[in-house]
Design brief:
The complex is a heterodimer of chains A (406) and B (144). Chain A is of the alpha/beta class and 406 residues long. Chain A has 14 helices and 17 strands. Chain B contains 6 helices and 3 strands. The chains are: A alpha/beta (406), B alpha+beta (144).
């Protein structure tokens, strides 16, 4: 089926509304994406007619829900091209997944004097859990820097990978700079020293194909709500050999085999890492979103977004006084920028009243702002349901904002 | 000088002529530009009310039993709202500040700017202004 933007926009009910009497231009997809009708309908249908706790029930509804939940796991497995469903763990989101790895991997493999390597462009979610781990264990957090364009300084990587490095945790695509990192090269060099790599895919999975086998990453995490699924759900992919070795990070129901007051034996993968009643409706909603993306065509989405990126770059580039932060060669459709000396909060407030939703501030990447010596940026983040016309509206809005504020 | 509630009423009237949001913001920008910058000695961390996205500085003095507020912000629209708050609350007795409800913000449609989820420092500023009033009132009653 050919990529039809009109048909796609019709699939997203929320897009067709006016805010402050202006048609909504939603450019805050880096924060969260909207849900196609099929996802909304699925959630509604599950709540209305199928709700039942999974894995334990003997009755009809429970069995039905259990098989749909496990089918969702298979959908995610296929989406990531993981080897088996044992490698797909449902979590509360990318943050939950990273915390799980930081705790569980940390318990098993990290001791005093060890090092965890992250990059300078990480989201706070991929900084703080590692800081907490380092504090717990007396380990050290090391940083791969980036250059003025927002490209990782790969020439420093080899020196940063040491005998003590236990894990590299790197974002696949930056939420504030838009950079798509050369993750395959990082993985190749880390693996040459037997160091595993975790990728934060929160800003990548909605923009293009991710194949964990081809990447050969050891962990991959993402959130459902950033890939057109419901909030409160996410995925942790991990290589089975590693997950088998790692201890559970939460105790509770469903993750156990036998429980006595003296001792507990744990369930097998992936259930060992899914304590408590799972967010099964979230997981099935995510799988529905993935099915929807497949139907639209992930490579078609990539092609459409590439055009949108070029167009946005050109339109923003034409605006006098606008500076883009993040000019990596390979990028996602996320643009961080500043307008002369205009405060980002002022700009965001005015754009909002024009019906244009952007984000302002540090985007949970304070070290990125520190790198450039700025306190924040305005960020427009686009996905495949955004249009050139919306980019035009943004550009006009920015021009008017500059006029009002200078 | 008009009393606190009259000033609030005047502001509500002033804003009632604006039909468009952008006109309202243009006016706030004007107010922000007109409010003199706070004395550099008060533009310090000691007087800073940090809202994650914009900063507000606030200083209060008791002059002839009335509180004189001086305030500033690094964001111009926030500064415009700051100017309105100063206009309403500055030059009042602590009792007047504490007894009267601030209703104009809501009436001119800027209530969302004072919601706890807005990280601009304005809500904290209003609270701080009232705290100053409380403190000066307590001080005055100690003396008498």
């Amino acid at each position: 089926m050919a990529f039809s933007i009109d048909r796609i926009r019709n699939d997203f009910p929320i897009l067709h509304q006016k805010v402050y009497n202006k048609p909504l231009v939603y450019l805050d997809n880096g924060a969260t994406t909207h849900k196609p009708a099929v996802v909304i309908e699925t959630i509604k249908e599950l709540q209305e007619s199928h709700n039942s706790s999974i894995h334990r029930g003997i009755h009809f509804l429970s069995e039905q829900m259990t098989s749909r939940y496990e089918a969702a796991r298979e959908t995610v497995r296929a989406f990531l091209n993981a080897s088996s469903t044992s490698e797909v763990i449902f979590t509360s989101g990318a943050t939950g997944s990273i915390n799980a790895v930081a705790f569980s991997f940390g318990e098993r493999y990290v001791k005093a004097g060890d090092e965890i390597l992250i990059s300078e462009m990480e989201h706070h979610s991929n900084i703080v859990p590692w800081q907490m781990l380092c504090q717990r264990k007396g380990a050290k957090l090391k940083i791969i820097p980036f250059d003025h364009n927002g490209e990782l300084l790969l020439d420093q990587l080899d020196a940063l990978l040491t005998e003590q490095t236990k894990l590299v945790a790197l974002t696949h695509a930056s939420n504030s700079l838009g950079t798509i990192n050369p993750v395959k090269e990082v993985i190749r060099r880390a693996h040459a020293r037997n160091i595993p790599v975790m990728l934060d895919g929160a800003q990548m999975v909605q923009h293009g194909k991710v194949d964990v086998k081809e990447l050969d990453c050891d962990f991959y995490v993402f959130s459902s709500h950033k890939i057109f699924g419901p909030t409160g759900s996410g995925v942790l992919y991990g290589k089975e050999s590693l997950l088998e070795e790692m201890p559970p990070y939460q105790g509770g129901g469903d993750m156990v085999d036998q429980v006595t007051f003296e001792d507990t034996s744990y369930n097998t993968l992936p259930f060992k890492f899914e304590a408590g009643t799972a967010n099964y409706i979230g997981a099935i909603g995510l799988a529905t979103a993935i099915d929807y993306l497949k139907q639209v065509g992930i490579s078609e989405i990539g092609l459409y977004e590439k055009e949108l990126i070029d167009y946005t770059k050109q339109k923003l580039g034409d605006i006098e006084g606008l500076i883009i932060y993040g000019n990596a060669k390979k990028r996602i459709s996320v643009f961080s920028f500043l307008l002369d000396n205009i405060h980002t909060y002022d700009a965001g407030m005015i754009l909002d009243k024009m019906g244009i939703a952007v984000r302002t501030g540090t985007h949970c990447t304070q070290p990125v702002m520190d790198h450039f010596g700025i306190s924040g940026t305005i960020r427009a983040s686009l996905v495949f349901y955004n249009t050139r016309e919306e980019v035009d509206r943004l550009a006009e809005g920015i021009e008017q904002t500059i006029k009002m504020l200078s | 000088m008009t009393n606190l509630n009259e000033t609030q009423k005047d502001i509500v009237e002033e804003f009632s002529i604006f039909e468009d949001w952008l006109d309202r913001y243009n006016y706030l920008i004007e107010l922000g530009n007109d409010l003199p910058a706070i004395d550099p000695q008060y533009r310090t961390n000691e007087y800073l009310i940090n809202g994650c996205q914009s900063k507000v500085w606030l200083h209060a003095d008791l002059v002839n039993e009335k509180i004189e507020f001086k305030a500033d912000s690094d964001a111009i629209i926030v500064k415009g709202i700051v100017a309105l708050l100063v206009k309403v609350l500055s030059g009042r007795t602590p009792a007047e500040i504490l007894e009267n409800e601030l209703y104009f913000i809501e009436e001119i449609g800027l209530k969302q700017n004072l919601s706890p989820t807005r990280s601009n420092g304005l809500l904290a500023m209003v609270k701080k202004m009232k705290l100053y009033a409380l403190a000066y009132q307590a001080k005055a009653s100690q003396k008498s």
